[in-house]
């Protein structure tokens, strides 16, 4: 890591101000060459930036220096805030690339250094990525909570308690011929381990809502042909994403629209009408619709109000909606009745939809897990802990105690994987590759 990295950290394209960041040993040298001096640590200083080859002015800009280790990466860092014109940036980046020891940063390079220098753990790295990626307010709130360490802090506390249990267990193994130590130790270990296992299981018991908030909730709009599905999708999306036609069987493939409903990212999918297909192409559409419906988080099942109620609907959670109530107000037991023509019932439908997707995504709750990687590590940890506690024998046999120590060690290993302190080489590239250059 002896090379010094640099990148345009603000967005691409012309802008009022652009930020170029640097990290590494050569930062002081860069300031000396470009500005003729080093700005005071953590003090914004307006300085001219010059090409070291011929002394010509590149731009005048605000310069910041963060001395190691008090910086985002933990290394010496520099920040150059210059005018965000294309020519200014092209010139500045070219000059930087000609300075010895400097290279352009790759995606996630700065954050990778912050991780390797212990400034962030892996959960915080992932959350930081999510802060940058967040499209909706609820996603942002969750990412910020995790970025400020709400899961990392818990993991740290669990680790401490398990290390304490481990030392008790080791004492029990060392003094196994003294029965008192063993019995007291076993009891203490068991309750400590059980309580950590229960806490982790409580965090795991979230029905995947954090992942859903991060990745988005899928809502399928389904029902018989001509029920008004495409019309509703267009109303919700406020644009003509689906072809609306009075002929049954128009929507042959799946049409998806992305929406922000109450802070939750939602993919609305318009399904081909579920009926006996008239031709082969329609049959494919119907088969896809059924498959997608089964995978959706919520199905809005639409049927014209005058239809008799109705077939069983596939899908995990179904909201039955009667459509075209302007024609005939027969509602059966459907929960909501709408008319796309008059607008009746649409505000209620929207309100209900927001309520349901917020519930599905746990937008109101204290969710802590947002990725499968985190879930696997925590599940492994809890499983090992259950093995520890079920295996602790009251008579305190030494062999049994050693087996328990092994389970406890594995549980600690799983916690280590969660925060990235052990065994993470293979996931690092994948995680950092999803970052922008300059972060
Ligand atoms: P889909 O096959 O379920 O997607 O149905 P469409 O959205 O294509 O609608 C079928 C027909 O019903 C179209 O002619 C729509 O204009 C009409 N339609 C949709 N919603 C309403 C409604 O609320 N009232 C009335 N009167 N007609 C509607």
Could you explain how this protein is built, in words?
The protein has 439 residues and is an alpha/beta fold. It has three domains: 4-116, 2-Layer Sandwich (Gyrase A, domain 2), CATH 3.30.1360.120; 137-206 and 369-420, tRNA modification GTPase MnmE domain 2 (Four Helix Bundle (Hemerythrin (Met), subunit A), Up-down Bundle); 220-361, P-loop containing nucleotide triphosphate hydrolases (Rossmann fold, 3-Layer(aba) Sandwich), CATH 3.40.50.300. It has 14 helices and twelve strands. It has helices at residues 27-35, 86-98, 109-116, 122-133, 137-147, 150-174, 179-204, 209-215, 229-237, 280-295, 346-360, 372-391, 398-419, 425-433; strands spanning 4-8, 15-23, 45-50, 57-66, 77-84, 102-104, 217-222, 255-261, 264-270, 298-304, 318-323, 336-337. A hairpin with a 2-residue loop joins strand 8 and strand 9 (264-270). The mean pLDDT is 85. Residues 225-231, 244-246, 250-251, 273, 323-324, 326-327, 339-341 line the site of guanosine-5'-diphosphate.
